[in-house]
UniProtKB/TrEMBL annotation:
Free-text remark on how the cofactor is bound: Can also use Mn(2+) ion.
UniProt keyword Lyase, yes or no: yes
Signal peptide region: none
Positions with a binding annotation for Mg(2+): D186
Taxonomic path: Bacteria, Pseudomonadati, Pseudomonadota, Alphaproteobacteria, Rhodobacterales
Keyword Cell membrane carried by entry: no
Name of the protein described by the UniProt record: Isocitrate lyase
Biological source species: Paracoccus aurantiacus
Molecular function as annotated in GO: isocitrate lyase activity; metal ion binding
Enzymatic reactions: D-threo-isocitrate = glyoxylate + succinate
């Protein structure tokens, strides 16, 4: 809510138009002021413009102090996003440096009309924009509900003639912090060619997205970053899509919009085509040099239908799979990632990077980032703290390997492999050290590896599955109603989760207020003494 007017300023402005205190139709100036202040944004494009500035300020703060990183959780509904941000605000007293992540995986898996789909860009592209709109409707609705409560306090203070309480209520209204925060929106590989990418980017931006995350896979062969079979496009092709996103942001006036360029090259061993090099050292030649090739000889000639290219002064044959795809040299992924990142920042105009890794290892990521920063000193990352990692096993293996190398333990002190997952190691020294590293993982990766933003892509998918399972096991088992009360309602009440008053959460009090605005004493209200929500006390 950038440059939002204070209560006094807005009241004076509206009162100039209606010096009698109401419109000719009997609408009160006070009610007009309240609705104007409850309406946090006129359009979702305004949100995109405002949130881009928030992200840029946060990026600058991180450059000055890498402990000031940002976080988000992936949300597959507006309600998930709303409850996450309300929780952050309740915990911290502010929403600063908390974002929402919109995962293409969850749109594919949960939010498209074709049913549950894998993360292969098969879902309708409109579903992504629809979810962004839904998230911002939910966040704005949280503003409306909270602001309405503040105005109820103001009206109560005035009715009681309590000047101090009235002043306090107005201060709370003027200092109200919106639940609207930046969204990092996954546009997959662009859903088509560069023009298709541009058109979709515009839809996402108009829905409110200030930040687009796009990956360098082939759009029609797109795979989840944690699966095999990934195919990358030449760097020139990807840079054209980065430009398409930038043009969409600029056209719509989101001049400070943010683009996150994701590279899947670490796990992608294939490319769709061999780009044409125009001169030594250009993007195409730097891409081609990593192709897996074989020497041409009398015993291995170039046959009809095969390709030959000149590399390092001699003709060689790029290896080619039956499907026409070209494999890269084994073990070249890391070097390709570093080159991708530098090209995306210096020639593609990306603002941040996303490196999709196969394990959560701070040292590994820091090593790649340090190489990128030799060319781009302020390079910053968005990092996926992915549920596709077995975090417990990965961190325990890392601790075990380090301790063996340091001589702290012998190889036989702890088992290797999946045995380390056993609950018997939870309280062990190794298990506790692994958990301590998990607790500080985001801090370490932000301060040591240039990660500006830590996110978990699919947490609300897994949380929903776990929570519904937990409730179902009790409710359909022996505990019956006790299962709901113990696992859900008591915790809501004791933590101050406002959703315990579910009617209030979805706007019943808003409806009552509006009825009073237009009907006065004639208003038929839901929030009277017989409302069962009065049994609860929440935030």
């Amino acid at each position: 809510m950038a440059n939002r007017k204070s209560y006094a300023e807005l009241h004076a402005e509206v009162s100039k138009r209606y010096p009698s205190g109401q419109t000719p139709g009997g609408v009160s100036v006070d009610d007009i002021v309240q609705l104007k202040l409850q309406n946090s944004y006129d359009t979702h494009l305004d949100i995109a413009r405002d949130m881009a500035k928030v992200m840029r300020e946060d990026m600058a703060a991180y450059d000055a102090d890498p402990t000031l990183s940002t976080q988000s959780l992936g949300c597959w509904s507006g309600f998930h996003a709303q409850q996450m941000i309300k929780s952050v605000k309740r915990l911290r007293g502010t929403t600063k440096r908390a974002y929402v992540y919109l995962s293409g995986w969850m749109v594919a898996g949960l939010r498209n009309t074709w049913g549950h789909l894998p993360d292969q860009s098969m879902h309708e592209k409109t579903a992504v924009a629809d979810l962004i709109r839904e998230i911002y409707v939910s966040l704005r609705q949280a503003d409306e509900v909270a602001m309405n409560d503040l105005f109820k306090d103001l009206h109560a203070a005035r009715k009681a003639g309590d000047a101090a309480a009235e002043k306090k209520a107005i201060e709370a209204i003027d200092n109200f912090e919106s639940h609207v925060v930046p969204i990092i929106a996954d546009i997959d590989a662009g859903f088509g060619n560069e023009h298709a990418t541009y058109l979709l980017a515009k839809e996402l931006i108009q829905a409110g997205a200030c930040c687009l995350q796009i990956e360098n896979q082939v759009s029609d062969a797109k795979q989840c970053g944690h699966q095999d079979g990934k195919v990358t496009v030449p760097r020139e092709d990807f840079i054209e899509k980065l430009r398409a996103c930038r043009l969409a942001l600029e056209e719509l006036g989101v001049d400070e919009g943010v683009i996150v360029a994701r590279t899947d090259s670490l796990g992608a061993g294939l490319t769709q085509k061999v780009p044409v090099s125009q001169e030594p050292g250009d993007l195409a030649s730097e891409y081609i040099k990593w192709l897996d090739t074989e020497a041409i000889s009398d015993a291995n000639p170039v046959r009809d239908g095969e390709l030959a290219i000149m590399l390092d002064g001699e003709f060689v044959k790029p290896k080619r799979l039956p499907n026409g795809l070209f494999p890269f040299k084994k073990g070249s992924g890391r070097a390709r990632v570093v080159e991708d990142c530098i090209a995306n920042l210096t020639q593609g105009g990306a603002d941040m990077l996303w490196i999709e890794t196969d394990t959560p290892n701070v040292a590994e990521i820091a090593g790649m980032v340090n190489e990128v920063r030799e060319a781009v000193p302020n390079a910053k990352l968005v990092y996926n703290n992915s549920p596709s990692f077995n975090w417990t096993l990965n961190l325990r293996k890392q601790v075990r390997d380090e301790w063996i190398k340091e001589g702290k333990i012998a190889a036989g002190d702890y088992p290797e492999g999946n045995e380390l997952m056993k609950a018997e190691f939870d309280a062990s020294e190794l298990g506790q050290e692994a958990d301590a590293r998990l607790q500080r993982f985001q801090h370490d990766i932000s301060t040591q590896a240039g990660v500006f933003h830590n996110l978990i892509t699919l947490p609300t998918f897994h949380l929903t599955a776990k929570s519904v399972d937990e409730l179902s096991r009790g409710y359909f088992g022996d505990d019956k109603m006790l299962a709901y009360v113990k696992t859900v309602q008591r915790e809501e009440i004791r933590r101050g989760i406002s959703a315990v008053k579910h009617q209030h959460e979805v706007g019943s009090d808003l409806g009552d207020t509006f009825k009073e605005m237009v009907g006065g004493e004639r208003a038929l209200k839901a929030g009277g003494h017989a409302n069962t929500m009065n049994q609860f006390a929440a935030e």
